[in-house]
Amino acid sequence: MTVSIERQGEIAVVTVNNPPVNALSQALRQGLFDAAEALDADPSVKAVVLACAGRTFIAGADVGEFGKPPMPPHLPDLVARIERAAKPWIAAIHGSALGGGFEVTLGCRFRVAVSSASVGLPEVRLGIVPGAGGTVRLPRLAGVETAVDMVTTGTPVGARKAHEAGLIDAVIEDDLVAGAVASARAALDRPLPDALRDRPVAAVAEGFWEAAAKTVAARAKREEAPLSALACVRRAAEADFETAIAFERETFLALRGSPQAAALRHVFFAERAATRPPELAGVTPWTIRSAAVIGGGTMGAGIAAALRDASLPVILVERDDGAVERGLANLRAIFHSAAKRGRISTDAAAERMAGITGTTDYAALSDVDLVIEAVFEDLDVKRDVFARLAAACRDNAILATNTSYLDPERIAEGIRRPERFLGLHFFSPAQMMKLLEIIPTRASAPEVVAAGFALARMLNKIPVRAGICDGFIGNRILKVTRAQAERLLLSGATPPAVDAAMRAFGLPMGPFEAQDLGGLDIAAFQRKAARARGETPFAPIADRLCAIERFGQKSGGGWYDYPPGDRTPRLSETVAAIIAEEAKDWPRLDWDEDAIADCILLPMINEGASILADGTALRASDIDLVKIHGYGFPRWRGGPMHYAQAQGLDKVVEALNTLATEGLADPPCDLLLEAARHGGFSDASR
Ligand code: 3H9
After folding, report:
1. Would you tell me which of 142, 537, 550, 617 could form a disulfide with 527, CB atoms 3.0–4.6 Å apart?
2. Quick check: is 123 catalytic?
C-alpha cells in the first residue's frame, strides 16, 4: 500500500510508503487524492497529519515518469485538493521534502520537521521549474527574496534555517509523528491561517527584478531553467494566483521536453547509478574509519582535506620534517580559504586541522584502514612507498595509489597481499573536484573495490570505475582533445578562436587557457615518458613551447603571454610564429565556432566509444560523468556520449568521416559505427 491511514483520535495520520524515496508516482498521487476525499467525507476527522515511511519524506515527482505522457491525477490538482480540504493538513517532514514533495507540503496548512530534515525546490537542476505551484505558493509563504533564491539555485534549506525563514512552522526534536499530531490538536484550538493561495505576495523593492535577472543569468550561464523559474516567481508577484499557476504549468511543460532537461535527467540517473555499480551488488566493502596520505603536495594535501571533510582522522606522511611542515601548511591554507569563503566556520577549520597528524614515520600507519599514496609520478618512487606500506600496515588496510598516468599493476608488483591494492584517482583540487576514478588491478578484491565506492560516498564524490590504460578514462580523452586543439591551429584556427568556441559550447575554459592555467610541463613530461616507451604523441607546437620554457601562467607565458601580475591572456607573437612554421605543410581551412567545437568534440566521442569498446569504461554514462565532474563539460549538455546521442549518432559518424578525410581526426571506431546502427550505446558493452 503506497498510502495508508491510521487514526489517533480525531487526527488521521496519512502515511506514504513508496520506496526508495516516496517519489510521486501516479499510484501515489491517486492514493493521496483518494485519502483527501475519504477524510473530508469522515466527520470524525478534524485534522490530517501527512507523514512518510522510510528514509525520507516525498523526494519529488517521479523523474522516471518525465519522458512519458502525464497521467491524472496531476500533481497541481493533488496539491490544490489538499489545500482546499475541509480539514487542515499538517506535513511531518523527515529526510528531504524536495520538488513536488515540498509542493505537497505547501498545499498543507502547516509544516513541521525534524532538525535533520531539509526542504527545497531543486527542479532547476533537472532543467525544469516547479510544476505544482511551488513558484506561486512559496513567495506567499516566505517572501519573494527567499522564493527567488530557492527556485533559481535549487539549493535545499535545512530545517532550522527553514524555520527562521518561515518555510516551516516548527522543528520537532523527538517523535515526529507524535509531535505533528500534538501540533494538529493545538492548531484546532486556534483560528486557522489562510491557505497559501489566499495570501498576498509582499511587494519588492524597486529594481529588484532587474537585479535578480542579472544575478541569475550570470550564475546560470547558458542554462534555461533558472531564468524561467525567476519569471515564474515574478508572475506570481504580479498576477493573480490562477494566472500565475497557469504560467508556471505552461513553463514546466515546455521545459520538461527540452534537450537541456533530457540531458540533466540523464546526468541525474547516471550519478545515482554510478554509486551502486551492479557488478558489486552484494559485496561488503572493507571498513574505512581512518586514513593516511603519503605526500603533502597540492594533490596529497587536497586528498587529506577531503578525507577530513568527511570526518576521518588523517595521518600525513612526508619524507622529512621540512616536507611534513610544508604539507601541514598546505592543509592549513586549504581550510583557511574554506573558512574565508564561508564554506566552513573557523571553529570547523581548526577542528579539521586538529584531526591531522604529520609524521615521517611509517610505523604510525600500523592501524589505519586506508592509505592513499600521492607522491611524485615516478614508478620507482611509488614502488618504494608501497613496499614500505606493505610492511607497515595491517594486512586488511587498503593501499591506494593516486597515480594519473602510471600503470597501477606495475606499481603494485611484488607487494604482499595485492588484493588490498587499487587506484584511486582524484582530480585537483581534490578537496573540491567531485570525480573519483576507481581503478582496480587484476588482483584487487571486490571488497576493496567496493570500499573505493563507499569512500566516494563518504567524501561526497562521484565514483567511476576505470580500467587500466594510459590516462584511464579522463586523461586518455584529454590527450585526444589536446591533439585536436593543435590540429586546429595547424589548419588555420587561432588559440583565442578555439578557446572562445569551446567556451561558447559551455566549457568554463578553452583548451589553451586551461593548459596555461594548469601548466604545460606535466603533459610534456608524460610525452617524454611515452616517447621513451616508443609511442608517438602528437603535440608539435606544445613541444616547442616547452622547449623554450613557455609552461603557462606560472612562467609568464604559454599559449598566451601574461604580463607580470596579470592573468589575462594576451596574444603571443612568439606562439603565432611557431604555429606558422609548424603549419606550413597543412591545408588552411575556414573555421567557425561550430566547426571548431565539432573538431574537438567528435574525436572526444570517438575516443569515448573506443574506451567503451576495450572495457576501460563499463557504461557510456560513466564517461559522461568523468567529463562533467573532472573536466567541466557542461552538465546541461549531458556529457559527450549523451551529447552524441542527442545529436544523432549517424550524424556524428558522418561528420567524423569528413574530418578524417581532411586528415583532422581518426575515422569512427567500430563501436561507434555499431552504436550508430543500433541508435545508441548499450550499457551492456562490457
Ligand atoms: C519535481 O518534483 C517536479 C515537480 O515540481 C513538478 C511535477 C509536476 N524520481 O539519491 P539516492 C531514486 S522534480 C525517481 O541514491 P539518497 C534514485 O534514482 C524532482 N527516482 O538516495 C535511486 O534509485 P536506485 C525534484 C528517484 O538517500 C534511489 O531513488 N526532486 C527520485 O542518497 C535513491 O536515490 C529531486 O530532484 C525521483 N525524484 O538521497 C530530488 N529521487 O536505487 C532528487 C531519487 O534505483 N532526489 N530517486 O538507484 C534526491 O535528491 C535524493 O534522492 C534524496 C535521497 C536526497 C531524496
Report:
1. 537
2. yes
Q: How far is the CA of 448 from the centre of ligand 1 (A)?
A: 28
**Cis peptide leading into 20, omega within 30 of 0?**
yes
* Digit-coded pLDDT (tens) for 642-684: 999 999 999 999 999 999 999 999 999 999 999 999 989 876 4
CB–CB of 378/356 below 8 Å?
no
**pLDDT attached to residue 682:** 73
pLDDT tens digits along 282-299: 999 999 999 999 999 999
Q: What tens digit of pLDDT does each residue of 460-488 get?
A: 999 999 999 888 999 999 999 999 999 99
8-state DSSP, 570: B
Q: Report whether 149 contacts 271 (CB < 8 A).
A: no
Q: Tell me which residue has its CA closest to atom 7 in ligand 1.
A: 131
| H runs (alpha helix) in 491-592 | 495-505, 511-518, 521-532, 540-547, 573-582
Burial of 348 per CB tally in 10 Å (0-12, 13-18, 19+): middle
Residue at grid coordinates 598516468: 405
Q: Which residues of 268-284 are buried (b: 16+ CB within 10 A; e: fewer)?
A: bebbeebeebeebeeee
- What count of other Cβ atoms lies within 10 Å of the Cβ of residue 339? 17
Four-CA torsion 572, 574, 578, 583, nearest 10 degrees: 40
Picking from 73, 93, 77, the residue whose alpha carbon sits closest to that of residue 85 is 77
76 Cα to the center of ligand 1, angstroms: 19
Cis peptide before 446 (omega within 30 of 0): no
Cell 519529488 sits on residue: 60
Contact residues of ligand 1, CB 6 A cut-off: 20-21, 23, 55-56, 59-64, 75, 96, 98-100, 103, 122-123, 126, 130-132, 134, 269, 272-273, 276
More confident residue, 276 or 654: 654
Task: Report whether 327 contacts 300 (CB < 8 A).
Answer: yes
pLDDT at residue 685, as a whole number: 35
522-574 residue pLDDT tens: 889 889 988 988 989 999 999 999 999 999 998 999 999 999 888 899 999 99
Q: Please, which residues have CB within 8 angstroms of residue 645's CB and are 6 or more apart in sequence?
A: 680, 681
Nearest CA residue ID for atom 6, ligand 1: 131
Kindly report the CA angle at 383 between 377 and 386, in degrees rounded to 5?
A: 110
d(CA 368, CA 254): 53
C-alpha distances out from residue 683 to 54, 113, 147, 473, 623, Å:
30, 40, 40, 16, 11
- Whether 593 sits among the annotated catalytic residues: the reply is no
CA distance 174 to 178: 8
Q: Given a cut of 80, is residue 253 above it in pLDDT?
A: yes
The residue whose CA has the least distance to atom 40 of ligand 1 is 59
Q: What is the pLDDT of residue 135?
A: 98
Residue 11 has what pLDDT? 97
What is the percent of the chain where pLDDT is above 90? 91
Q: Which residue has the higher pLDDT, 419 or 221?
A: 419
Q: Measured between alpha carbons, how far is residue 154 from residues 141, 447, 461, 560, 638 in Å?
A: 17, 36, 19, 38, 18
Catalytic residue among 123, 318, 373, 607: 123
| Residues constituting the chain | 686
Q: Determine which one of 6, 65, 83, 103 is catalytic.
A: 103
At residue 607, does pLDDT exceed 60? Answer: yes
Which residues touch 181 (CB under 8 Å, ≥6 apart)? 8, 11, 13, 49
